[in-house]
């Protein structure tokens, strides 16, 4: 008997950008960056505090914008998703730099968790981009 399988549950339909899992995750990550990490980085005088805050808070806004423009200008919507993936990579770089520069003075478990979560979000945005490309007919 196969008892180790999870019961299949379909995902909720997406009616607005706030329904997107990648939006919810990037929003949660930006809140963690601003509330928990930023104050510590300010006291450590990390040079790129504002850059990392701006990058993390931009990601949910780009997802919302991509969701809005994808029907009118599909290429722009996909381009914004590319920006989100690039932004996730940028956040990983900022976090790895913080860990390298101030590693002993910070909670490395928090940094490692944030890095993992940004990698996961980047992969989900990639999959979202591929699913949006499926219903787009390229010009011949």
TrEMBL record:
InterPro entries the UniProt entry points to: 23S_rRNA_IVS_sf
Lineage: Bacteria, Candidatus Yanofskyibacteriota
Protein name: Four helix bundle protein
């Amino acid at each position: 008997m196969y008892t180790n399988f999870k019961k299949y549950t379909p995902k909720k339909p997406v009616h607005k950008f706030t329904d997107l899992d990648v939006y919810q995750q990037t929003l949660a990550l930006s809140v963690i960056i601003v509330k928990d990490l930023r104050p510590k980085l300010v006291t450590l005088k990390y040079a790129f505090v504002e850059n990392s805050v701006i990058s993390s808070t931009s990601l949910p806004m780009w997802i919302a914008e991509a969701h809005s423009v994808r029907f009118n200008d599909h290429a722009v919507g996909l381009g914004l998703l590319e920006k989100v993936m690039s932004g996730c990579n940028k956040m990983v770089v900022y976090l790895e730099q913080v860990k390298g520069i101030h590693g002993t003075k910070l909670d490395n478990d928090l940094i490692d968790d944030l890095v993992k979560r940004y990698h996961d979000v980047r992969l989900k945005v990639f999959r979202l981009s591929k699913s949006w490309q499926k219903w787009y007919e390229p010009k011949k």
